[in-house]
C-alpha cells in the first residue's frame, strides 16, 4: 500500500461527483451533509463550551464570550502552576516520543526485513501486551520504581509511558518499513554501502510519514496519561498537565473559568499535533494492518 | 560480516524492546500474582505476610463492591462498544466519501481522540453543570445529571462516546480504504443498489476490521479508568465503579496492594476469557 491511497478519490464516488464540483443531489445532502453536520455539532459544541468558559469574565452566563478576558489563563498559568505542569508534560512527552520512535524503528525494521527464529513469538507478545491494563499495573510498577528510586521523578513516567507506547508503535513501524521496497536498499549495499549506512541514507528518509505517525502517537498518549502520573508522582512541582487538571477539577469546582482555561492549555498542543498528522495516522493504521 | 554476526542483527534490534517489556510488563504481571497471595498494605506494614487465598475469599464472599463492579463493567463495555460501532461505522462511511473540505472535516470529527480522559471530564462537567451548562437549552436547567443514580449512566456514556467514536472511525476508515474499488464498480455494473453494495461488498470486507476494532476498543474501554475516576469517582453510591476503577482506587487511595492484586488477577482472568471467547465466536481471520 502506498502513500497515494490517501489522495486518490474513492472509486465509489467517481460516477456521482468529482471533487470541487458536487452535483446537485438531494439524496447526497440527506445522506452525507446532514449526518456530518449533526456529528460536527456533537464534536465541536463541547470544545466551544470550554472556550466560552475560558474567555468570558467570571459570573457571566452568556453563550458568547464578550468581552474577552484572559484573566483565567493568568490564574492557571501563574497562580495554580500550569507553567510548571506544562514544562513537565513537555519533558515527559518529548523524551517518550524520542525513545519510543528510535526503539520502534529498530524493532519495526527487524520485523519487516528479517525472518528470524522467535519472530512470530515476538509478534504475539506485542499483540498480547494490548490486553494488559495500565490501571492494573499500578501496584507492581509502583514497587519497581520505588526500588529504582524513581518515585516522584519524571523518569518513572518516561519509562512507563514508553513501555506502554512501544508495542503498537513497532507494529505500525514495521508496516511502514515493509512499504519501502527492499530493492533500493539492496542497490545501495551493492554500491558498497554497509547495511547501516544504506538504512540511514535510503530507508530513513522514506520513513518520514511513519516517524511522524509513530512519534505523534507516542507524544499524544504520553501527554494524556493520567494514572501513572497520579500514582508515581506526588510532589506538586513534578505534576503533569492531566494531574494538575484533575486537582483543578476537584479543588476549583466552583471556579469554572480556571477549569476551562486549564482545559484549553491541556488541549491545545495535542489537538494541534493531531490536526496536522491525522492523515498519516489513518494511513499508518491501514499499512500496519495490511502488512502486520 | 560473518554469518554468526549477521544472524545476531535482528536479535540486537529487538533487544531493547524485549528488555523493556520483560522488566516493566512481564515481571510486574508475575509480581501481581505473587502479591495477590500476600497481605500487603502500605498503610499497615506490621500486618504484612503470607495470606494464601484469603484475599480471594474476601473478594468472592465479603466484597459487595466487587460483584457490583463486575455487573457495571459489563454494562459499560457493551453500551460503549455497541454505540461506538454504530456511530463509528456511520462516521467512517461519511468521511470516506469525496467532498469539498473532507480533510478539514476529518481533522475536526476525529479531534476528540487526541483529548485525555481528564480533559473530557473537565469539558463535560462544564456542559452538565446545573444552571450554566447546556442542559438549560434542552429545557432542563436544574438537572444534576451526574449526581442522580438514574441519569448518571447515560451521562457518562455520552461523554465517553464523544471521545471514543473517533478512534473507532479511524480504525474502520483504514479498513474501508483497503477495499478494492473494482468491486464496487463490478457491483454497480451488476445493478446492485447502494444498500446491496454495502451489504455484500463493504460489510464482508470490513468484517475482520470490525472484529479487531470492537475487541481492541472493548479491552480499552474495560481498562480505561481516567474518565470515570475523575468525572464520577465511581459514584454516586458506587453505581459507576468498574473493576479496574475499583483496583485503581484501592491502589491509589487505600494503598492495599495485596487485596488490589487479587482484584487485578480476577480482572486479568475475566478479560482473557472474554477476549478468547469473542475471537472464537467471531471466527476472526478464518476464510468463509
UniProtKB/TrEMBL annotation, chain A:
<feature type="compositionally biased region" description="Basic and acidic residues">
    <location>
        <begin position="13"/>
        <end position="23"/>
    </location>
</feature>
<keyword id="KW-1003">Cell membrane</keyword>
<keyword id="KW-0812">Transmembrane</keyword>
<feature type="region of interest" description="Disordered">
    <location>
        <begin position="1"/>
        <end position="23"/>
    </location>
</feature>
<feature type="transmembrane region" description="Helical">
    <location>
        <begin position="256"/>
        <end position="277"/>
    </location>
</feature>
<dbReference type="InterPro" id="IPR000515">
    <property type="entry name" value="MetI-like"/>
</dbReference>
<dbReference type="Pfam" id="PF00528">
    <property type="entry name" value="BPD_transp_1"/>
</dbReference>
<keyword id="KW-0813">Transport</keyword>
<feature type="domain" description="ABC transmembrane type-1">
    <location>
        <begin position="86"/>
        <end position="277"/>
    </location>
</feature>
<keyword id="KW-0472">Membrane</keyword>
<dbReference type="InterPro" id="IPR050901">
    <property type="entry name" value="BP-dep_ABC_trans_perm"/>
</dbReference>
<comment type="similarity">
    <text>Belongs to the binding-protein-dependent transport system permease family.</text>
</comment>
<dbReference type="InterPro" id="IPR035906">
    <property type="entry name" value="MetI-like_sf"/>
</dbReference>
<protein>
    <submittedName>
        <fullName>Carbohydrate ABC transporter permease</fullName>
    </submittedName>
</protein>
<feature type="transmembrane region" description="Helical">
    <location>
        <begin position="196"/>
        <end position="220"/>
    </location>
</feature>
<feature type="transmembrane region" description="Helical">
    <location>
        <begin position="164"/>
        <end position="184"/>
    </location>
</feature>
<feature type="transmembrane region" description="Helical">
    <location>
        <begin position="32"/>
        <end position="55"/>
    </location>
</feature>
<keyword id="KW-1133">Transmembrane helix</keyword>
<feature type="transmembrane region" description="Helical">
    <location>
        <begin position="124"/>
        <end position="144"/>
    </location>
</feature>
<feature type="transmembrane region" description="Helical">
    <location>
        <begin position="90"/>
        <end position="112"/>
    </location>
</feature>
Amino acid at each position: 500500500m502506498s502513500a497515494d491511497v490517501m489522495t486518490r478519490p474513492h472509486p465509489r464516488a467517481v460516477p456521482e461527483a468529482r471533487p470541487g464540483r458536487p452535483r446537485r443531489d438531494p439524496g447526497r445532502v440527506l445522506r452525507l451533509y446532514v449526518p456530518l453536520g449533526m456529528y460536527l455539532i456533537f464534536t465541536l459544541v463541547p470544545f466551544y463550551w470550554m472556550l466560552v468558559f475560558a474567555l468570558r469574565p467570571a459570573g457571566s452566563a452568556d453563550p458568547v464570550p464578550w468581552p474577552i478576558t484572559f484573566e483565567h489563563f493568568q490564574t492557571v498559568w501563574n497562580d495554580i502552576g500550569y507553567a510548571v505542569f506544562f514544562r513537565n508534560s513537555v519533558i515527559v512527552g518529548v523524551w517518550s516520543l524520542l525513545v519510543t520512535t528510535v526503539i520502534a524503528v529498530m524493532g519495526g525494521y527487524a520485523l519487516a526485513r528479517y525472518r528470524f527464529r522467535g519472530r512470530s513469538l515476538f509478534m504475539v507478545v506485542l499483540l498480547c501486551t494490548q490486553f494488559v491494563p495500565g490501571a492494573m499495573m499500578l501496584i507492581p510498577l509502583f514497587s519497581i520504581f520505588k526500588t529504582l528510586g524513581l518515585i516522584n521523578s519524571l523518569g518513572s513516567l518516561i519509562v512507563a509511558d514508553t513501555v506502554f507506547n512501544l508495542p503498537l508503535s513497532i507494529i505500525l513501524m514495521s508496516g511502514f518499513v515493509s512499504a519501502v521496497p527492499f530493492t533500493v536498499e539492496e542497490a545501495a549495499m551493492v554500491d558498497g554501502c554497509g547495511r547501516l549506512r544504506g538504512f540511514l541514507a535510503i530507508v530513513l528518509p522514506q520513513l518520514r510519514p511513519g516517524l511522524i505517525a509513530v512519534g505523534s502517537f507516542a507524544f499524544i498518549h504520553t501527554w494524556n496519561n493520567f494514572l501513572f502520573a497520579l500514582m508515581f508522582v506526588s510532589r506538586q512541582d513534578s505534576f503533569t498537565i492531566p494531574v494538575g487538571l484533575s486537582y483543578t477539577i476537584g479543588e476549583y469546582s466552583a471556579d469554572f473559568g480556571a477549569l476551562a482555561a486549564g482545559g484549553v492549555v491541556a488541549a491545545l498542543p495535542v489537538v494541534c499535533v493531531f490536526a496536522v498528522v491525522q492523515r498519516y495516522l489513518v494511513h499508518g493504521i491501514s499499512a500496519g494492518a495490511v502488512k502486520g | 560480516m560473518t554469518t554468526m554476526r549477521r544472524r545476531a542483527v535482528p536479535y540486537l534490534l529487538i533487544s531493547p524492546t524485549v528488555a523493556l517489556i520483560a522488566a516493566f510488563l512481564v515481571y510486574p504481571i508475575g509480581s501481581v500474582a505473587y502479591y495477590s497471595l500476600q497481605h500487603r498494605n502500605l498503610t499497615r506494614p506490621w500486618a504484612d505476610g503470607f495470606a494464601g487465598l484469603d484475599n480471594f475469599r474476601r473478594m468472592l464472599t465479603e466484597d459487595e463492591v466487587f460483584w457490583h463492579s463486575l455487573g457495571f463493567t459489563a454494562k459499560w463495555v457493551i453500551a460503549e462498544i455497541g454505540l461506538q460501532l454504530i456511530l463509528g461505522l456511520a462516521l467512517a462511511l461519511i468521511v470516506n466519501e469525496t467532498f469539498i473540505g473532507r480533510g478539514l472535516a476529518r481533522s475536526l470529527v476525529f479531534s476528540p481522540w487526541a483529548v485525555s480522559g481528564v480533559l473530557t471530564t473537565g469539558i463535560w462537567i462544564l456542559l452538565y453543570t446545573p444552571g450554566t451548562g447546556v442542559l438549560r437549552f434542552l429545557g432542563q436547567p436544574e438537572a444534576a445529571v451526574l449526581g442522580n443514580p438514574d441519569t448518571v449512566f447515560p451521562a457518562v456514556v455520552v461523554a465517553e462516546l464523544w471521545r471514543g467514536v473517533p478512534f473507532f472511525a479511524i480504525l474502520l476508515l483504514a479498513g474501508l480504504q483497503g477495499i478494492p474499488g473494482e468491486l464496487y464498480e463490478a457491483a454497480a455494473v451488476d445493478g446492485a443498489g447502494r444498500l446491496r453494495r454495502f451489504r455484500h461488498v463493504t460489510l464482508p470486507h470490513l468484517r475482520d476490521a470490525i472484529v479487531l476494532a470492537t475487541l481492541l476498543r472493548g479491552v480499552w474501554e474495560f481498562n480505561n479508568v481516567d474518565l470515570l475516576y475523575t468525572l464520577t469517582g465511581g459514584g454516586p453510591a458506587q453505581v459507576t465503579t468498574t473493576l479496574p476503577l475499583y483496583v485503581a482506587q484501592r491502589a491509589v487511595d487505600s494503598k492495599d496492594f495485596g487485596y488490589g492484586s487479587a482484584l487485578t488477577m480476577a480482572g486479568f482472568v475475566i478479560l482473557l476469557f472474554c477476549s478468547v471467547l469473542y475471537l472464537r465466536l467471531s471466527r476472526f481471520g478464518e476464510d468463509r
